[in-house]
Sequence to fold (516 residues):
Amino acid sequence: MRSDAWNAFIEAAEADGWRRIVDLFGEDQGRLGAFCVEAAGLRLDLSKQPWSREGLAAALDLARACDVEAARDRLFGGEIVNISEGRPALHMALRAPDGADFKAAGAPVSAGVEAVRDAMRAYVETVRAPKGEMGDIRAIVHIGIGGSDLGPRMVWEALKPLQPRIDLRFVANVDPADLAAALAGLDPATTLVFVVSKTFTTQETMANATAARAWLRTALGEEEARTHLAAASTNLPACQEFGVAPDRVFGFEDWVGGRYSVWSAVGLSCAIALGWEAFSELLAGAAELDAHFQSAPLARNLPVLLALAHIFNRNGLDRPTRVVAPYARRLRLLPSYLQQLEMESNGKRVTQAGQPVAWATAAAVFGNAGTNDQHAYFQMLHQGTSVIPVDFIAIAQAEEGPVEQQSILLANAIAQAEALMVGQANPAEPHRDFSGDIPSSFILLDRLTPRALGALTALYEHKTFVEGVIWDINSFDQWGVELGKTLAGRVLAELEGGPAGKHDPSTSALIAKLKA
Ligand code: F6P
Fold:
């Protein structure tokens, strides 16, 4: 069933691959309506993708043959979808409104989620209160890496006020320059250090947290320093052992994957710096998209359609990369957030049953904010030798600045999508020839509100999940990062004077050079 649908899908995609996207509009008067869907405040236009109605139908048949709806119901039902780690993936429970009834492997979790959310809210109010019991907190240093960093960093960049009352700075890299830059100019007496690590063992995070704790202790003394430390983790004993007071440790459960954790206590720094109202709107926007994903028919379901469009390019037309181009400075960190979400989730080559996959999986994602990226890598999109599909993301109404500039920004986003698809033949001057036929998706938000950002983020989460279901891989583990971590431990021991280990000649030479 699956393989029949897969073969039919590939055939349909190859047939569409011979047609030009612009011509598909002429052949199908209802194309725009069929390929343009709105939900949860997002308008998704997939009409500039390279599929015809027949191609879309084959893609939907593939989704049905892969039982996407049943897999979605298992995900929301809290079944163990992360098989290699024996866990559900229930980040949707974190953003559900009060009174929800999520279960993780049969055990009710919503009451526990609400209890942490209440504690977070109370803490947000304590910290935001001017001259409250913690004094006047003016800055938060959020220390974490990967999923404990990229989500909150993206959210803050997207929503931060121009002149924040509480500044929020992020430290991820173990490079000491990262922490130094974050602490520069801050007063320990008015700073909260927030350590975020699901495991509370990650080398980079623990090194930075230890250095930041020393910075607090030197200035404030051990007791006072404790009141300037908070943590989010699943490993509560380790947080306390590190010196965080128990009432400043905010927990979450192991069914929250790192790259899906911004909705949990991991997002506490954003909740403090943006205020509780904004944070709860972020959650509400994601919950709205969850409800849409659960209830909309496949042919009108945003995450399903976006996943199918990406799979159409990745598998049907063998396109291994994709650009994400938000035409919004405030969304410029979205591409790096999506790099982890998509590439850590779906950069896999064994099926759920442990067999080698017979098809390509995650595309490599890169991007930057438009219009800057037009002056960097867009040349290659227009005239390079590879077809690289693009996700354009634009915001209709600016929150700040002159409205004319927003119009210039939007005009550029629309024009790029048009130019990539339509092209311009110029046989007389080959260097000015634009073959066109480069596919793109266009996601339009009315305004960049916390709610819209929540919906946008959840859209990409669920589209990543749908891809994983169709590729028959586990989107929720990340064993690939383990080997590098283990080897880094061995190399560090040698750099610190331990006996030389067994390595390839190049690695041994590098270690010897640095020791010398
Ligand atoms: O190295 C990758 C990773 O395991 C990510 O999946 C995770 O988000 C990150 O490390 C940080 O892990 P932790 O939150 O446990 O510090």
Observations:
- The CA atoms of residues 126 and 133 lie 7 Å apart.
- The chain has 21 helices and 13 strands.
- The longest helix spans residues 450-471.
